[in-house]
Design a protein that fits this description.
With about 250 residues, the chain is of the alpha/beta class. It has 8 helices and 7 strands. Helix 1 runs antiparallel to helix 2 (about 30-50) and helix 1 (about 5-25) runs parallel beside helix 4. The longest helix has 23 residues, at about 5-25. Pathway: Lipid metabolism; Phospholipid metabolism; CDP-diacylglycerol biosynthesis; CDP-diacylglycerol from sn-glycerol 3-phosphate: step 2/3.
């Protein structure tokens, strides 16, 4: 291990420990506004340690702002996705259960309010669906990854439509978000993909050892849900993200 990599890893470990202490000592009494500030600040610093620079992108309708009250759906590439979004727009996430097993980070994202869903568990899905509707009704910003798993950059998997129903029931819009990770030449960054047999630890080392990353996040035009069907919403969101990513 070279000195630069060792220093980056040491900074990352110290930052994770700070996150653990914040969740244990501050979160129990902190209000929602303070939690959001802490999550945004901690996520932004995590990205800086990993040499990930944030860049705001735009879709076909120009640059959009993130709605304060919406069901946000995004393509899913890496464990970085949660922290890229949280560094700009702290949200409540719905994520696959495997994320809970990430060393340290899994516990941290759970403390930040992430809801974990097990694949194929219909009872779990019904419970989470109700929780989503309640959260949206309380004017929270909620995010989920409708692909259900991570995909390689340059591809976009079909969207699962079930959870789009929560936006219909809560009478809030769906806002698609397109995420991309670029290298210095503007191409897909080779170190970021988190697919196949890549482990969480492998992914961290690839990112820390690789060249700096430009994370481009584009908030796209909201999709109204009144009178819509969940499959229509899923297709519209898929098309919008695919067009923004040009895949």
């Amino acid at each position: 291990m070279n000195i630069r990599l060792g220093w980056r890893l040491a900074r990352l470990i110290l930052h994770l420990l700070q996150g653990l202490l914040t969740c244990a000592l501050v979160f129990p009494w902190a209000g929602a506004a303070l939690r959001e500030r802490l999550v945004r600040r901690w996520s932004a610093r995590l990205l800086r340690i990993c040499r990930v620079e944030l860049e705001r992108g735009q879709g076909a309708d120009g640059e959009q702002t993130a709605l304060g009250h919406a069901l946000i759906v995004s393509n899913h590439i890496s464990w970085l996705d949660i922290f890229v979004i949280n560094s700009l727009h702290p949200c409540r996430f719905v994520a696959k259960a495997e994320i809970r097993a990430w060393p340290v980070l899994g516990w941290l994202v759970a403390q930040a309010g992430t809801v974990f869903i097990a694949r194929g568990n219909r009872r779990d899905l019904r419970h989470i669906f109700k929780g989503l509707v309640d959260a949206l009704a309380q004017h929270q910003r909620v995010v989920f990854f409708p692909e259900g798993t991570t995909a390689s950059q340059g591809s976009l998997l079909p969207f699962h439509a079930n959870l789009f129903e929560a936006a219909i029931d809560a009478e809030v819009p769906v806002q698609p978000v397109a995420l991309a990770y670029l290298d210095s030449a503007g191409g897909w960054h080779p170190a970021v993909d988190y697919t196949g047999d890549t482990t969480f630890v492998d992914s961290i080392f690839r990112i820390l050892k690789g060249e700096p990353v430009r994370a481009r996040l584009a908030c796209l035009a909201p999709i109204e849900t009144q009178g819509a069907h969940r499959r229509e919403l899923a297709k519209a969101a898929h098309d919008a993200i695919g067009a923004a990513l040009r895949v």
